[in-house]
Amino acid sequence: IPVDVYELGLIYDVMVNEDYDVKVIMTLTTPNCPVAETLPKEVEDKIKSLKEVNDCEVEITFEPAWTKDLISDEAKLELGML
């Protein structure tokens, strides 16, 4: 997919504390998403690779449920949805 997880609307919140510990709350398109086992770890590893970041935790939630409405307009254009 030529669109990142943020533009797909999968990232619900990002919090950074004073120690540069990052917590990401994200979702997947469905609980049975084929990348459910790998995508959260990829997001965590990518954030941990930033030199400013001390630690990172990724939490998966399905509330609210993801819908195509969460995809950014730019991503919809890229995906041929507009």
Average of the residue pLDDT scores:
96
Neighbour order of strands in the largest sheet: 1-2-3
**Low-pLDDT windows of residues:** none
CATH architecture: 2-Layer Sandwich
Separation of the first and last Cα atoms: 16 Å
Q: What is the N-to-C order of secondary-structure elements (H for helix, E for strand)?
A: EEHEH
**Share of helical residues:** 10-25%
What is the CATH topology descriptor?
GMP Synthetase, Chain A, domain 3
Can you tell me the overall shape? globular
Output the structural class. alpha+beta
> How many strand segments?
3
What fraction of the residues are assigned to beta strands by DSSP? 15-25%
Radius of gyration: 13 Å
Largest sheet: number of strands, sense, barrel closure: 3 strands, mixed
Number of domains: 1
Helical element count?
2
CATH superfamily: Fe-S cluster assembly (FSCA)
**CATH class designation:** Alpha Beta
